[in-house]
Amino acid sequence: VSKGPGNTKVAKSTAVPPGPPVYLDLVYIPNHSNRKNVDVEFFKTVRSSYYVVSGNDSAAEEPSRAVLDSLLEGKAQWESNMQVTLIPTHDSEVMREWYQETHEKQQDLNIMVLASSSTVVMQDESFPACKIEL
């Protein structure tokens, strides 16, 4: 928030402004997929073949169910039904519930959620991983 003329508070928007769509191959959904920064306008404007959905903090609502629902709403307004793949970085309860509850709509919109069965081991740590070829 900043001070405008006459000491009036003017909120600074961090959302994507409306405009022509931008097409990308891979997009990392900002701010751990938190709804404070990502809404329907983001997905209407930033169109990607792959979206990385990070976040593993249910207390902070990351990833946010509202963001995942915004993807469905935004994608429904695209002119084409291009394939979209979601790549979750964590197996979260929010992601699992959203996947199960909206699976039919995901299929209608040509959205696939990538589940990883691969594991990367680095030093003392192991974690699921996905390989993407563009």
Automatic annotation (TrEMBL):
Q: Name one GO biological process term.
A: regulation of microtubule depolymerization
What the entry lists under InterPro entries is as follows: MAP1
For this record, the Gene Ontology CC terms, alphabetical, are: cytosol; dendrite; microtubule; microtubule associated complex; neuronal cell body; synapse
Q: Name one GO molecular function term.
A: microtubule binding
Task: List the PANTHER family hit by this protein, alphabetically.
Answer: MICROTUBULE-ASSOCIATED PROTEIN, MICROTUBULE-ASSOCIATED PROTEIN 1B
Q: Which protein is depicted?
A: MAP1B protein
Q: Which organism is it from?
A: Cardinalis cardinalis (Northern cardinal)
Taxonomy, top ranks, is:
Eukaryota, Metazoa, Chordata, Craniata, Vertebrata
